[in-house]
Amino acid sequence: EPGTECPICMEPVEDRMSYRTMVCPACKRAWFHRDCIQAQAMRTGVLCLHCPFCRDIREFLARMFIMGIRIPFRLPTWEDNDAFADLEERHSQCNARECLYPGGREQAEEED
């Protein structure tokens, strides 16, 4: 359709498939630039790369390999250097106005 945008960079794509413009083989709705999907593949790796629209993995990966998209076999880059390690930390104090713990705020703190 006219005005179709790449879901990765949000820029217009060509109105037909070409070397630079690709389409998802599963949903046929996601049109994207070859450079955009290549960059996405380098960030996500083979374990997390999927269609930005329908989230298909199997058919999408197979077609990307066939089309020459290099997809590294590794964890996504956001898993590097424990980027989300602080999300695993537990909150150290209760900020609730009214404590709902059966034994009260003091007992809850003692059990930690």
UniProtKB/TrEMBL annotation:
<dbReference type="GO" id="GO:0008270">
    <property type="term" value="F:zinc ion binding"/>
</dbReference>
<dbReference type="InterPro" id="IPR001841">
    <property type="entry name" value="Znf_RING"/>
</dbReference>
<protein>
    <submittedName>
        <fullName>G2E3 ligase</fullName>
    </submittedName>
</protein>
<keyword id="KW-0436">Ligase</keyword>
<keyword id="KW-0863">Zinc-finger</keyword>
<dbReference type="GO" id="GO:0005634">
    <property type="term" value="C:nucleus"/>
</dbReference>
<feature type="domain" description="RING-type">
    <location>
        <begin position="6"/>
        <end position="55"/>
    </location>
</feature>
<dbReference type="Pfam" id="PF13639">
    <property type="entry name" value="zf-RING_2"/>
</dbReference>
<dbReference type="InterPro" id="IPR011011">
    <property type="entry name" value="Znf_FYVE_PHD"/>
</dbReference>
<dbReference type="InterPro" id="IPR013083">
    <property type="entry name" value="Znf_RING/FYVE/PHD"/>
</dbReference>
<dbReference type="GO" id="GO:0016874">
    <property type="term" value="F:ligase activity"/>
</dbReference>
<keyword id="KW-0862">Zinc</keyword>
<keyword id="KW-0479">Metal-binding</keyword>
<dbReference type="InterPro" id="IPR051188">
    <property type="entry name" value="PHD-type_Zinc_Finger"/>
</dbReference>
